[in-house]
Amino acid sequence: MLASIGIAAAMTQASFRPPAVPLVAHDPYFSVWSFSDKLTDTWPKHWTGSTMGMAGLIRIDGKTFRFCGDSPGIPALPQTALRVEATTTHYTFEGNGVRLHVKFTSPTFPEDLDAMSTPVAFARFAYEATDGASHKVQVYLDTSGEWVVDKPNQRVTWGRVKLGGKEALRMGSQEQRILNRSGDDLRIDWGHLYMVPPAGAQSALANDTATRGGFARDGQLPTSDDLRFPRAASDQWPVMATAFSLDAGKEAATMLAYDDIKSLEWLERPVPAYWRRNGMSFEDLIAKSLAASTDWFKKADALDVKLRSELTARGGDKYADLACLSYRQAFAAHKIVADIDGKPMMFSKENFSNGCIGTVDVIYPAAPIMLWLNPELLEANLRPLFIYGSLPRWKWPFAPHDLGQYPLANGQVYGGGEHSEENQMPVEECGNLLILAAAHAQAAKSTKFAAEFEPTLTKWANYLLEKGLDPENQLCTDDFAGHLAHNANLSVKAIVAIGAYAQLLDKMGGSANKTLATKFRTSAEKMAKDWMKLAEDGDHYKLAFDKSGTWSQKYNLVWDKLLHLNLFPKEVYTKELAYYQKVMGKYGLPLDNRKAYTKLDWCVWTACLTDSRSEFDNFIAPLWQMANDSPSRVPLTDWYWTTDAKQVGFQARSVVGGVFIPMLKF
């Protein structure tokens, strides 16, 4: 049965062309993708678009072909298939009597935080003959110094080390300025990249011409390492390379691992990756990962089949394609670290937005994948925000927007930060955190986490009581659209958040909480009725209460439905959904009447307002088509034009975790 499902999955994905393909997708720094249809069309790139040199070659009976990268003078082995699953990307190449399978796998197992935080990825290789003959097959793989620097003119060093009883190759920047800066369009330039070849493999540390040329010529790598270092990563392009023989029907794997030493700062204190919390060394981590690799591969393959089956059952083949493509991207825009007490903290990076870390209105759309697969992951996102929002240094009566700029979570930097109310998102962020606290309690079947921060949450709920029904001129999560007063969708968020918090208090129990829950529930019910009058505009509801003839997606309504709050009557849903069909664009429903652009995550949320599978499919199909057709060859964008599928901005963001909201059932 599993085999048949896997075959069916391959068939459905045969026509799906991702805008970019995850190869090594672990965290905001260790994140390498293919931006082209074929792995041989261009060099792999960091999610930011900077080249991350990786060459893959294969010798078949003495003839050399490339399967990865654009090495000049070496013909490409024809690529015949590409399939992206949750944890693994599958490539197939065929020629000279051989069918080569290349898989890029990461241990992205949501129920296992140790594996999730382990910075390793595997390139897996296997082949079978297509002509019934025997063949001599050798495989080559290398990575360049670009993986360990921000700019290729930075100097790198390299060497060999023993890890887990095996010899590994290591490369890193010369300067090693750990956590020396923050920003958005940046690559890591501290720590070390490791390559662990399979048993019996050749290995070399030399310039790319020597290693690739030697393998192409006679299947041999240089017998001595290049010792001219440190030197710029672009100076004759030093690489770590391995080459090995491959037997038909047997799989061999090369491990790539990144030791970032210190992952980020949390309130001025460097904090380690979660896997380091008990003092494990990187050498021990590699040994552990090598020992676990065979089981990890089986687990990854089984998880991929299970997830695709469940996603297809819920939303169809196109929905499953979109969700599987989103899976690693959603997690790779995070870093999991350990607090001083060992508790996990998970920090998102606002990729190609402003580089903020721990942004509330990025966590909000990303939350569904975590709520569905393991609510502990959402708790790890929320904990640092709840702590920060409870500190005396955060003096505002509303929730913060962010925790800093990646990788420095040292306090809010957006808008007025800790210093003024300018360009804050008070209603937005209070609403987001209250809704997520309630959703977490539902998914985890426990209010214990939220109860730790009850005074702070109550303060934010009271703020929404005062300011939420008819928001002042302020930003919401769609801040790229500018300030907007009397925002109807933002008002929905505030009302739903108050109702959600009432539900949460009721679940906490105790007479004081019950009394407070009644107060908030009664207020939310009244606000919902008032909202219907304020937003009414004939056959739909307005974008803003004072702007007749306008409209917008009311995606925040989805939590009224998912949390079974029943604050808004069915007619609100049906009226809005009917109107959306009138204004649907070629590549999805525009965000509102002001522009023809939209947000991928919000479109999926809006699709969940319907109980009709056919109507749901009508929302999802244009999103699949956007990903398939977009001329913007970048990791899945969430902000694009509904007219031509071109990216407006943003890429590789965690918000694509919102694609998983149809899977939530509380």
What this model shows, in words?
By secondary structure, the chain is an alpha+beta fold. It has two domains: 247 residues; 321 residues, Glycosyltransferase (Alpha/alpha barrel), CATH 1.50.10.10. It is built from 15 helices and 25 strands. The strands form six sheets. Strands 6-7-8-9-17-13-12-11-15 form a nine-stranded antiparallel β-sheet, with helices on one face. The longest helix is centred in the middle third of the chain and has 51 residues.
Total helices: the number is 15
Number of DSSP-assigned strands: 25
Instruction: Tell me, briefly, the overall form.
Output: globular
**Quaternary organization:** single chain
Question: Would you spell out the secondary-structure blueprint of this structure?
Answer:
Layout: H1 2-13, E1 21-25, E2 31-34, E3 45-46, E4 54-60, E5 63-68, E6 79-84, E7 88-95, E8 98-105, H2 113-116, E9 120-129, E10 137-144, E11 155-163, E12 166-173, E13 192-196, E14 202-207, H3 208-218, E15 231-232, E16 238-246, E17 252-259, E18 264-266, E19 269-271, H4 282-332, E20 334-338, E21 344-348, H5 360-373, H6 375-390, E22 408-409, H7 426-444, H8 448-451, H9 454-467, H10 488-508, H11 511-535, H12 558-562, H13 570-583, E23 597-599, H14 600-607, H15 613-629, E24 639-641, E25 647-649
Parallel strand pairs: 18-22
Antiparallel strand pairs: 1-2, 2-3, 4-5, 4-10, 6-7, 7-8, 8-9, 9-17, 10-16, 11-12, 11-15, 12-13, 13-17, 14-16, 18-19, 20-21, 23-24, 24-25
Helix pairs in contact: 1-4, 4-15, 5-6, 5-7, 6-7, 7-9, 7-10, 9-10, 10-11, 14-15
